């Protein structure tokens, strides 16, 4: 117990707590839209090899319909079963008010024509393989390991600190009473 208490009183403990808070904040950021129309997304397929591979982290910026041939865009696409999915492909051609898209690794162009209202944004940066970590951390097991367990650990340490404080205070109070007798 004394070694644990000496760690708790050291600057390293506060550094670890600060890292935990920054980590939790970064998980929050990865799941929200950022200021300036930026969003952070993870590639879920290899359809854009070599530009983007499965597990890459992408920073996507809403360009408000200023997209042209060659831009890599992330958009909502409808699956054959009627559900929506998020897809990242390159604009292959522009035809009036619609875009024709194609994955770099795909043989054929996409069947559906892309309307501007379905575009989330243009990919402006790709960070290789970091998306695997983000996907894991967003999973139930990742949240348990990265948020719940450390949160319980820090909470229990703080409870131990409070108990130690009150024990010391009670001990000091007992010494003062016996001194007056």
Describe the 3D structure.
The protein has two domains: 1-30 and 139-181, no CATH class; 37-129, Umud Fragment, subunit A, CATH 2.10.109.10. It has four helices and seven strands. It has helices at residues 2-8, 11-30, 130-138, 140-180; strands at residues 33-34, 38-42, 57-61, 72-78, 84-95, 98-102, 119-127. Strands 1-2-3-7-4-5-6 form a seven-stranded antiparallel sheet, covered by helices on one side. A hairpin with a 3-residue loop joins β1 (33-34) and β2 (38-42). α3 packs across α4 (140-180). The protein is rod-shaped.
Helices and strands in order:
Blueprint lengths: L1 H7 L2 H20 L2 E2 L3 E5 L14 E5 L10 E7 L5 E12 L2 E5 L16 E9 L2 H9 L1 H41 L1
Antiparallel strand pairs: 1-2, 2-3, 3-7, 4-5, 4-7, 5-6
Helix pairs in contact: 3-4
């Amino acid at each position: 117990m004394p070694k644990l208490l000496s760690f708790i009183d050291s600057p390293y403990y506060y550094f670890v707590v600060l890292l935990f808070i920054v980590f939790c904040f970064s998980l929050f950021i990865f799941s929200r839209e950022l200021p300036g129309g930026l969003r952070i997304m993870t590639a879920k397929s290899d359809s854009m090899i070599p530009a983007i591979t499965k597990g890459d982290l992408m920073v996507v910026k809403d360009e408000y319909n200023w997209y042209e041939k060659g831009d890599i865009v992330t958009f909502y696409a409808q699956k054959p079963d009627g559900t929506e999915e998020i897809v990242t492909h390159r604009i292959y051609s522009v035809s009036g008010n619609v875009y024709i898209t194609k994955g770099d690794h795909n043989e054929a162009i996409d069947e559906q024509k892309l309307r501007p209202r379905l575009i989330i944004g243009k990919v402006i940066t790709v960070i290789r393989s970091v998306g695997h970590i983000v996907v894991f951390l967003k999973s139930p097991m990742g949240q348990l390991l990265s948020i719940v367990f450390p949160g319980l650990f820090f909470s229990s340490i703080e409870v131990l600190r409070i108990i130690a404080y009150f024990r010391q205070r009670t001990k000091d109070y007992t010494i003062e009473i016996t001194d007056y007798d």
